[in-house]
Protein: Neurochondrin family protein
Organism: Urochloa decumbens
Amino acid sequence: MDSSPTPAAAAPMAAPAPPLEDCLRLLRGERDEQKLAGLLVAANVCRAGDAGSIRKVYDAVGPRFLRRLLNTGLGKVEGGKEEEREAYLRLALTVLAGLARVPEVAADEGVVSTVPLVAEVVSKSADPAIIEECFELLSLIAIASEDGACKFCEPGVIDMIFLQISSLLDGSKCIELAINLMRLLVHKLKFDNMSVENLQGMTSMVTCLARLFAVLHTAVKFDALHMLTTLLSQKESPLHDLLRSMPASIWESNIRVGITAILQNRVVSSEKLHALLLAECMMSILGEDWLSEDCKIQDTQNVLPVDKFVLLVLESARIEVAVLLNELAYLKYESSKTSQTDEAVCQKQRNLAILFSLIERTIKMISNATSGEGAPSQTIRESTIMQAITGLNETISLVLDFLQDAKDHGQQKGDDLLAAARIVGSYLAEAPYACKEKIRNLLEFIFSIEGQDESSPFYSICFMLPMLSQITMEADGCIILASFGGYKAVIDCLVKMTEQDGIDNGSMFLACDTIINFMSNRKGVNIPVDSCFIRLLKALVAWAGTTNASSVTMTASCLCAMLIDLTSEEFLLSCSDFDTKTLGSLSELIVRSLQQDVPDDDEEQFNQKQIIVSGYRRWADRFPHVKNVVEQHVSV
C-alpha cells in the first residue's frame, strides 16, 4: 500500500458521530490514502451509527479492500514496516467487527470470506486485544448465517482458531470469547447435509476439544466435556462415520485421559454423568472394545492402565445407577406429586437410560473378551473380568429390586421400567442363570412391562428372548415359562414381529428357538390349540414367505411341524381364521424345507430337518392336503 496510518491513528478516541457523507466520500476514493482515512472515520460510524449507516459504509468500502488490509497486516503483501502492518491489522479488524454488528452485513459473502484470514490472525498474534477482537468478529459472523458457520469448517480454519486455546490465560477475556465461539459452532452446525470437506473440519473440532479436555484443569475442561458430548451423542451422524474411518489417533486417548480425570476427582455428580455419557458415545461410535483397548501414545504419564480404566468407568456407572434407582423409587412412590417432581423424575430417567446403555456396552465388551472376539489390542486381564462380573451381578440385583418395588406398587408402565428390563435382559443373555430366584419371581411382571408409548407389552418380552432361548433348553426353564403362561406371551411377541415393517430376524430366531425348546422339553405341559396357536402358524408361514433364506425356511417349518402335530387338518379348517389358502402356504413351506439341501457342517439345520421329517411321518395321515402336496414333490 502507498501509505499507512500510524499505530496511534488506528485506534482513535471516542468522538461524536462523524458526518456520514464525508466518510462515504473518502471510502469511495480511488487512492488507498483516501480509503484508509475513510476507514478511520468509519470506525466511529460503526460504533455510533444505525444499521442503515453501517450498511452504507460496508457498500462503500467493499470486502476486497478489507481483505487487502488483512493480508497486508499478516505480512502477505510486500513492503511496509512491522508497526505499520500491525496498525493496518488493527484497523481492518476494528472496522470489520463494527460492520458485523449488523447481521445482514455479517452474513454477506464478502465478510464471511474473511474467516480464514481472521483465523490466521488468531494463530499468529500474541496481542490479547487483537485476539479478543478476532473472536468477537468471528462470533458475529458465525451467528449471522449458516454459510458463516460453515466457513469455519474449511480445511485448517478450526485448527488455527482453537489450537491456541490451551495457551490462553485462564479466566481471561480471550478464553471466554474462544469458548463462546466454539460453543456457538457446536450448537449451530448441522452435520446432515455437510460436504465431506466440511465434516473434516468438524473432526478437527473434535480433536481440539479432546486435547483441551485432556490437558486443561480449569473450568474450560468442563466446557470441552459438554461440547464433546453434544457433538458425539447425535445419533447416526455422518461425523461418526468419518471419525470411525480415521486411523487410531491421539484424540481417542485424550478423551480417555479427560474421562479419567473427571471420574477420579471430586466433581459434582452431573459432571461425572457427562463423562460417563462421553464414554458411552465413544463405545457407540468406535465399538464396545474401545473401553478395553490399549491405546499407545507418547505421553503416558496421565494414561490409566487399561484394567484400571475399565473398572473406573464401570464402578462409577454402578455408583450413579445405585443413587438414581434409589432417588427414582423415592420420587415415584413416596414423595408428594408436583410438577417439579415430574420434571425431576424425567431427568433422572434420562440419566438412568444413559448409564444403562453404558453398562450394556460394557457387558458386550466383557462377552467379547471372554469369547475371544475382542479387538487384537484388547489386553484386559481375567482378574479384571471377574471383578467386573461381580460388580455387574450386584448392579443387576439392584435393578431387579427396583422392578420388585414397581411390582409392589402396581406400576408396570414407564420407560425407566422398560430400560431396566432391557439391561436385565442384556446381562441374562450372557449369564442366563444369574439371580435365578429373583428372575423366577419377577419374570411374569417383566413380561407385563410397557414403555410409555406402548399399548401392550412387546419390547420387555423381546429383551428376555436371549435368556429364554437358553433356559428353555432344560425342563426347569420350561416350567418357569409355563407357570404363568409365559409361552403365550412369547408367541404374541413373535406374531407382532411379523406384523412390523422390516422384520428383525435375529429376534424372530430367538423367539422360535424359545418355543421349539419349550415344546421339546415341556414334559407334560398342555398346549391348547386356540386362537394364539392359529395366529402363530399363520405368522410363521407369512415370515417364511418374505425370504428365500434357508435359515428362515428351516426354522419356520420346524416349528410348524411341531405345532401341527398337536392337531389335525380337519380341526384347523374348522377355525374361522384358518382357511385353505393358509393351508396351501403351509404345505408349500413344508415342501421347501424337505427339499432344502443342508450343509454337512450346519448342525442346527440338520436337527431341524430331522424334526420336520419325523413330525411329518407322525401327522401326515391327519393332514391329507399337506400329504398330497408333499408327495407330488418329495419322497419322504
In short: The two ends are 98 Å apart (CA to CA). Residues 414 and 604 are 38 Å apart (CA to CA).
